[in-house]
């Protein structure tokens, strides 16, 4: 919440028993006090009792409004510390130009994950009250800019002038989140072990989508090959021509793929 004196941390909590006090953990950051996880360094526990004026009963809402509120729980910047065992997962949207209001209509396959280390770095920055944090993905550096909508952020590439939507989702358990953060390594042609552009092993970067060129079948991380796609460049390994539009690696190509019901990374 923005005020004339700065920002105020606002959180949405789901209460099983509104008459009981709520145990919250708070920590002081560079921007003031904010809700934090129990294991966050310097976190203090506070017991708060909600007043009747602060409560909204989902049973009293119209059916469509109640469904909307409940659905929004999958994307939550509230740090709901009452949700015992739930683990935060940051996901990036594979589609361009998606707005938070329409993102709930996307299937689960429309969202990609970061590596375990990147997910932890983003969450730590969010918990510390930072406005953004930088992460390296292949040869590219992204700024993860939190907000302004609750439950969302933006992944910004200041070099290539690209951005995409990110959401924060609370997973039921650490085990389930860990499975999502450890996808199977992609199967690539030519027994190629690493991306020729960033030299990172595919097995060590399984969360990064890959792109296989037709014809020569050289494989790259999509993120690493983006600048080549934008400039309609040749394959850097064999200098063969590439139809980047047909691969869905350019803006025009992505629109064509989406119009056919496909998704791009």
Overview of this protein structure:
With 265 residues, the chain is of the alpha+beta class. Helices cover 19% and strands 25% of the residues. The protein contains six helices and 13 strands. The strands form four sheets. It has a six-stranded antiparallel beta sheet. A hairpin with a 4-residue loop joins β10 and β11. The longest helix has 12 residues. The C terminus is likely disordered.
List the helices and strands and how they pair.
Layout: E1 2-3, E2 6-7, E3 22-29, E4 32-35, E5 44-48, H1 63-71, E6 87-93, H2 100-103, E7 111-113, H3 116-127, E8 132-137, E9 140-146, E10 152-157, E11 162-171, H4 174-181, E12 210-212, E13 219-221, H5 222-230, H6 251-259
Antiparallel strand pairs: 1-2, 3-4, 3-5, 6-7, 6-11, 8-9, 9-10, 10-11, 12-13
């Amino acid at each position: 919440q923005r005020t004339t004196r700065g920002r105020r941390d606002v959180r949405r909590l789901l209460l099983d028993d509104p008459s009981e006090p709520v145990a919250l953990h708070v920590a002081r950051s560079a921007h003031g006090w904010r809700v934090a996880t129990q294991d966050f360094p310097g976190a203090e526990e506070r017991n708060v009792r909600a007043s009747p004026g602060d409560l909204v009963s989902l049973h009293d809402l119209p059916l469509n409004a109640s469904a909307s509120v409940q659905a929004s729980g999958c994307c939550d910047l509230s740090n709901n510390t009452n949700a015992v065992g739930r683990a935060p997962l940051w996901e990036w949207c594979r589609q361009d130009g998606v707005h938070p209001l329409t993102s709930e209509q996307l299937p689960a396959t429309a969202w990609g994950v970061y590596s375990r280390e990147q997910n932890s770095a983003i969450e730590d920055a969010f918990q510390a009250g930072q406005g953004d944090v930088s992460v390296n993905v292949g040869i590219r550096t992204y700024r993860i800019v939190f907000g302004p909508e609750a439950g969302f952020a933006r992944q910004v590439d200041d070099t290539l002038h690209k951005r995409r939507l990110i959401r924060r989702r609370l997973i039921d358990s650490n085990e389930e989140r860990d499975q999502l953060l450890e996808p199977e390594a992609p199967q690539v042609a030519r027994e190629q072990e690493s991306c020729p552009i960033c030299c990172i092993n595919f097995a060590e970067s399984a969360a990064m989508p890959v792109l296989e060129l037709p014809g020569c079948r050289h494989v790259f991380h999509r993120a690493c090959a983006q600048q080549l796609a934008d400039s309609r460049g040749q394959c850097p390994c064999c200098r063969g021509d590439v139809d980047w539009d047909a691969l869905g690696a350019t803006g025009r190509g992505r629109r064509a793929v989406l119009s056919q019901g496909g998704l791009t990374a």
